[in-house]
Amino acid sequence: MAVPRNALKKWEKVREFALGLPGAVEEFPWGESVAKVNKKVFVFLGTDDGSYPLGVTVKLTDQTAHAHALACPGAEPAGYGLGRSGWVSVPLEVRGAPAAELLCDWVEESYRTIAPKRLTAELDGR
């Protein structure tokens, strides 16, 4: 099944933003794209080959952002018990999915939760 263009564009923007953060690297555990900082995942990007619906999974410890993310159409606490730690899976192919800018804000928050202080300081200095 073809991925809707607007969803793919959002996904590409989010991926590019995530990998542009200080110290971020892309890896492919389990055959899915993840962005890591300091060997820890800060965003699960999944796949863009159409085998699964496009989406991103981020860690949101801020109550307001977490509630906002969960209020998005189709969003849910992440599987494998990650939801209990604040991880939220946000689908991008559903009507009313968040804009790329908001997704990037959430990716940045997730990054700040996981990245070492020196890298968040580098980000603040930009």
UniProtKB/TrEMBL annotation:
Transmembrane segments: none
MF-aspect GO terms: DNA binding
Keywords, alphabetical: DNA-binding
Protein name: MmcQ/YjbR family DNA-binding protein
